[in-house]
Design brief:
- The chain has 122 residues and is mainly α.
- Helices cover 80% and strands 0% of the residues.
């Protein structure tokens, strides 16, 4: 069970790397994307998002109690959100040097950790 849970979380991390690039790549790499039209940017984002789904769908199947995994669908969703914001934060801090992590961001993350606690509470 632990292996399936950790495997699902690892796949969610991979998925969220692609998701962050698909959604925010044109902002993070503005100099590379500002010369092409919006339809090309949308097409590139969809292509990147395809890889997101190639990791997300197996992560949800592997982790879901419906398929023998350790997590309920509620738990999977909250894990996904925490992974998403964690991956997003790391990428923004590494790539977008003009963005700062402020106290209100940390308070929001603490609220998400509280959400994880309450979702997993039986």
């Amino acid at each position: 069970m632990l292996g399936r849970g950790l495997g699902a979380i690892a796949l969610l991390i991979c998925s969220n790397l692609f998701m962050t690039l698909a959604w925010y790549g044109q902002v993070m790499f503005k100099s590379r994307f500002e010369r092409i039209g919006i339809m090309a940017v949308i097409g590139i984002s969809w292509l990147v998002a395809l890889f997101e789904y190639c990791f997300m769908v197996p992560a949800n199947r592997l982790g879901s109690a419906e398929y023998g995994g350790p997590f309920s669908i509620w738990e999977l969703k909250v894990i996904q959100e925490v992974v998403s914001l964690t991956v997003f934060t790391v990428i923004v801090l590494l790539v977008m040097k003009n963005e700062a992590l402020r106290w209100n961001h940390l308070v929001g993350f603490i609220c998400l950790v509280a959400a994880v606690f309450f979702i997993f509470k039986k």
